[in-house]
């Protein structure tokens, strides 16, 4: 119930705040049985069918059951002082999101084997809704802050809240409501930015950006930049709404790890990223193919 979760998170106090997302705040909570969980408190939208939308999101999330997808443990939909409160309770991921783990912040840089393991885990977590769910499900907002790491640095995909079931033609178009165009600049595919066409292959594009992030340690996103410097390749797209946007992708290895990545494996990863970032959706690999390639370089236990 709401009051139970309120208590578990110290009344949603800042002390318990572990993340702020586009649509929510996420708190660490301890349930009465001592289990630690992540409580995602969605920002009220005030829409008419807010409760129905929420319940269909819950329904979708609870159908997903995979070791590389952050499991939904419960939810709460309750009116509190005339406001509809929507809470989602997830398994707590001790190492937070991948982006924060790549930013050093005094920690030692993530070693190569961990990076490859994270790439493979996340790839499996995305392959699952793409291939195993019926109907197939698109994520639509793959990025490093939506890949969470548990205490063993096992990667799990989260934030499938805006995921969409795929239509029969394999493409979902959201241009009917451009105001609700979802996704994150720097990650979404050109065809999605330009004509609002999302497909399994637009998720693959976003995943390619994440692979480069794992290699370079940096968020490979810069707007309006002059031609690429050495070691950078440029993915350019002229999106009307994003005027002359460029995605500058650095392929230079994480400076914190200079010389400590195995060259051959790194080249395989960089090549895979380039394949995922192809302009034409059809030229990009499927997530199953991505998983297969990553398995050839990942350590056995992963
Ligand atoms: P939004 O959907 O509003 O963008 P997210 O689901 O992306 O919110 O969560 C925002 C941040 O909160 C994440 O990047 C992560 O740092 C943190 N977070 C979310 N879920 C968990 C979890 N289960 N365990 C630990 N941290 C989490």
UniProtKB/TrEMBL annotation:
Residues where ATP binds: 41
Record keyword Calcium present: no
Domain Protein kinase intervals: 12-297
Location of the protein in the cell: Cell membrane
MF (Gene Ontology): ATP binding; protein serine/threonine kinase activity
Enzyme class: transferase
Transmembrane helix listed as a keyword: yes
Primary subcellular site in the record, as a coarse category: membrane
Entry keywords, A to Z: ATP-binding, Cell membrane, Kinase, Membrane, Nucleotide-binding, Phosphoprotein, Serine/threonine-protein kinase, Transferase, Transmembrane, Transmembrane helix
Protein name listed in UniProt: non-specific serine/threonine protein kinase
Source organism of the structure: Zizania palustris (Northern wild rice)
Residues represented out of the complete protein: 172 to 473 of 544
